[in-house]
Amino acid sequence: MAFQMPFKFGGAASDATIATRARPSRMMEYDQPLVWVVILLMLFGMVMVYSASIALPDSPKFAYLAGKNNYFLLRQAMFIAFSMVVALSPPGSVSRR
């Protein structure tokens, strides 16, 4: 791979060099709608976990959660954060043989 200047000095030969460099960035290689759908599903899941577990400390079975209304929400957020770290890590760095 040859080093290319980000500007051209002039002439037809330098136009061809700059034209070969003009390609989309790596950030545009991923599927943006899919990323937004995944983020929205994770947020929707957090809302569902919170709404389903907000009344649990009132039950005698879950008396140990008294005063911890956000226990399951924080636990869900922790698992989402862990999964994002694994998903965004470089390929092969999580499971090397």
What features would you describe in this structure?
With 97 residues, the chain is an all-alpha fold. 52% of the residues lie in helices and 0% in strands. The chain has 3 helices and no strands. The protein has helices spanning 12-21, 32-53, 71-88. The longest helix has 22 residues, at 32-53.
Protein topology:
Blueprint lengths: L11 H10 L10 H22 L17 H18 L9
Helix pairs in contact: 2-3
**Main sheet characteristics:** none
C-alpha end-to-end distance: 31 Å
Determine the number of helices (DSSP H or I, runs of at least 4 residues): 3
Mean pLDDT: 77
Order of helices and strands: HHH
Q: Approximately how much helix is present in the residues?
A: 40-55%
As a whole number of angstroms, the C-alpha radius of gyration is: 25 Å
Q: Quick one: overall form? A: elongated
Structural class, please?
mainly alpha
DSSP, total strands: 0
Low-confidence stretches: none
Q: What is the beta-strand fraction?
A: under 5%
Task: Describe the structure concisely.
With 97 residues, this protein is mostly helical. The protein has three helices and no strands.
Properties at a glance:
mainly alpha; 97 residues; 0% strand
